[in-house]
Structures are given as C-alpha cells and as structure tokens.
Specification:
Blueprint: E1 4-8, H1 14-24, H2 33-42, E2 46-53, E3 56-66, E4 74-82, H3 91-106, E5 111-113, H4 120-128
C-alpha cells in the first residue's frame, strides 16, 4: 500500500474537496464554491489540509482562526472528513495534527470542533485526542431571500 501524505490543499484539489464535502453534508452549496475555496486557501485565518494516497485525496480538514467579544482567538474546525475506505488508518489523526500545528502558529488558544450527537465514533475520536465535551446546544438556521 502506498504511503498516505498530508499537505496543505492546492487550488487543483477543489473538485475532490467539494465531492468529499457533499458526502459529509448533502446540503453543501455548490453555488459559489470555487470562490469560497480560493478565499479560504488565500486567507491567513483559514486552512485546508488534505491527505492523499498517491495522487488521490482521501480526506480533508478545514479550519478557521477567529476571536469574538466572548472569547480570545481560537480555531474552529469547520469540517473533517475521511473517505470510508480509508478510515481507521490514522488519516484523521494526521489531519488533526496539521490543524494543531497550524493553530499553534496562528496564536490561537484552543481548538473547537462540533459533531452531530449521533456520531458516537467522532465523539470518541475527539475525546481520544484530548478534546473535552464542553457544550451541547441546538443550532438554528433561517433562510433569507437574496437581495441581489
């Protein structure tokens, strides 16, 4: 088996990252994805890392470093996904290591990640990596009519 390499995402990874995102979240909005992807790669406050087996991307992680009035700078993992055939091979751990290193360099004080309550495997993974469950909450969304 070829070695799995983890690296920063490239512009050319956009389609496979979109394909993986659509598996992770069937509600992923394709409209404007390329612009959002390029903006994320170019932003010093955002990061995307991918894990590859040969030339094939088998997983990715997206994170953003932010601060709010309520809290100092911290990193939020927006998405972490590994293709089903490559799970339990350490891919997610490598992606998480990349985000931890990036977070340390960005000056953030912590990493926050959310996971659906039904994803017991994800919960156990994050706990095994030193994360603590600190909040359970509901998330609400209101769709607005576009003015444009």
């Amino acid at each position: 088996m070829k070695k799995i390499i983890t690296r920063e995402a490239k512009y050319s990874d956009q389609q496979v990252v979109l394909d993986l995102l659509k598996i992770l979240n069937k509600d992923t909005c394709e409209n404007g994805f390329i612009q959002r992807y390029f903006s994320t790669i170019e932003s010093p406050d955002s990061a995307i890392f991918v894990s590859c087996l040969g030339e094939s991307v088998v997983g990715f992680v997206e994170a953003k470093s932010i601060y709010t009035l309520q809290s100092p700078r911290h990193t939020i993992i927006k998405a972490l996904f590994v293709s089903e055939n490559y799970r339990n091979l350490g891919v997610a751990s490598r992606l998480l290591d990349c985000i931890e290193n990036w977070t340390n360099r960005s000056g953030s004080e912590s990493i926050v990640v959310g996971s659906r309550t039904r994803r017991e495997d994800a919960k156990q993974f994050y706990i095994s990596k030193g994360f603590e469950l600190f909040k359970e909450h509901n998330i609400f969304k209101k769709k607005l009519n576009s003015i444009a």
